[in-house]
Amino acid sequence: MRLVDRHAPAGPDSRFTRRRHRLRAGLTQLLFVAAGVAGGIFVPKITVPPTVSSGRIVDLLFTAGVTVISLVTVIYSLLFLVVQWVSGTFSMRLALFRNDPIVWRAFAYAIGLFVFCFTAAFAIGNDKTVSVIVPIVALILVVGALALMRVLQTRAFVSMLLAPTLAAITEHGREILLGLYRPDRGEGLPPAPRPPPTRTVTWPYQPAVLQQLHVPPLVAAAAAADSVVVLRQTVGVTLLTGMPVADVHGAGPGEHAVLQAAVTGPERSFDQDPLLAFRLLTDIGLRALSPAVNDPATAGEAIDSLEGLLILLAARTVPAEQLADDGGVVRVVLRLPRWEDFARSCLDDLIAAAVSSPMVLLRLRDLLTRLAETAPASGADVVATRAAWVDDMLARNLPVIWADGRRQPDSRFDGQVPGT
C-alpha cells in the first residue's frame, strides 16, 4: 500500500493501519509474567558463593512480592482519582495519561516481579542455603519497581498541570497534521480517474465512534476487483445505523471488506483523528470560560495552542488522501477535513462563549487578524466572517475596549496592554 500525494511521488505509509493498544498491553504483561516465571525458576539454581540461609530468603521473597502488589494497588487507586480530576478540570475526552504506555508497562513490571518472587520462593523449596545472587536480584528488581512507580507518579502530577497538558495535546495534533497534510507546491495535478460508482456501503451496526481506518486489506481487495473505494466519513465521527460509510466504484470489494476497514470504539482516539487536538483545546477553553470557572487566562493559553496548529496547517493545505496499490493505482480515497473545517470547529464555540470576556475577545481578534494573512484562499471567508463577528461583539458589549483596541490592533506583540 502506498500513500499518494498529488504533488509528490508516492511513498510507503503505515499510518492507516490498526493500532492494537490493548493487544500490546496484554502481550507486555504476558511477557513480564513469563520472564518472572523463568527468572524465578533459574535464578535460585545459581550456586555462586557466598550463600545465605534459604529460610530468610524465602521470607524476603514472599514479603517483597506482597509489598510490591500492595504498593501498586494503592498507587493505582490514587492515579484513578488523578484521572478523574483531570477529566473534570480539562475535558472528559482527555485520555493522555490514561493511555500513556508507562501506566500498563509499570503494572506489567510489578506483576512480573510478583511472579518472580513467588516462583523463586517455591523453587528454593527445602534447600538449606541459596546463593546471595538471589536476594541481590530481588533487591534490584524491587528498586526498579520503585523507580517505575516514581515515574508513574511524576507523569500523573504533570498531567494535572495546564502547560504540559496543552503542550502534549498540541504535539499530538502536530504529529497527525504533518503526517496527513502536505505543502501545496502548485503543481495542480488532476484527481486520479475512477470507475463509475456502483453502490454505497452503509453502517449496519449500533452507533460507534470511528477511531481508526485499517486500509491495507481494503486496498488489496479493491486492487483484486480493479475498483476504487471512496470513504465518506472522517475518523472521529460517530457512525450511526444506516449512515453511508463508503462509495464503491467498480465491481468490488464486498461490503464486509469495506466495513472491516472501520475500527470503532466508544470514544475518539489520537491515532488518526486530525480534529481531536482542536476539539480538546477548544474544550479546555470553553471550560475556562464557563461561569463556574471564569478563568480567561487559561482560555487564552488554549487559543495560543490553537493558533499554532492553524498556522501550521495553513502551510500544508494538500490532504494526502489517496492510497494506491503496489502498482501505483489509487484504490482507496480517504475523506480528510480541510483548513476551514478546523477553523470552524475551534473558533465558533470559543467566540460564542467569550461574549463577556474582553481578554479572550481581544485575543481572538488578534488571532483572526494574523490568520487573515496566512489562511489559504479557501478559508478566507471563514476568517473574515469570524473577525466581523468578534468585532461586532466588542463594539456592542465592550465599546470602550473596542475603541482602544482599534487604536492598537495587535498590541500583543508591541509590549503594550490594550486599553492603556
What does this entry look like structurally?
It is a single chain. The chain has 420 residues and is an alpha+beta fold. Among the domains are: 21-160, no CATH class; 276-313 and 337-413. The chain is 56% helix and 13% strand. It is built from 13 helices and 14 strands. It has helices at 21-42, 54-89, 101-124, 133-158, 162-180, 216-224, 255-260, 276-289, 296-314, 339-353, 358-374, 380-397, 399-407, and strands spanning 2-5, 8-12, 51-53, 129-131, 181-182, 197-202, 208-213, 228-231, 238-239, 244-249, 262-265, 318-319, 322-324, 330-333. The chain has a seven-stranded mixed sheet with strand order 2-1-13-14-8-10-6. Strands 9-7-11 form a three-stranded antiparallel sheet. It has a two-stranded antiparallel ribbon with strand order 3-4. A hairpin with a 5-residue loop joins β13 (322-324) and β14 (330-333). α2 runs antiparallel to α3 (101-124), α8 packs antiparallel against α9 (296-314) and α12 (380-397) crosses α13 (399-407). The longest helix has 36 residues, at 54-89. The termini are far apart. Mean pLDDT is 86; it is low at 5-12 and 411-420.
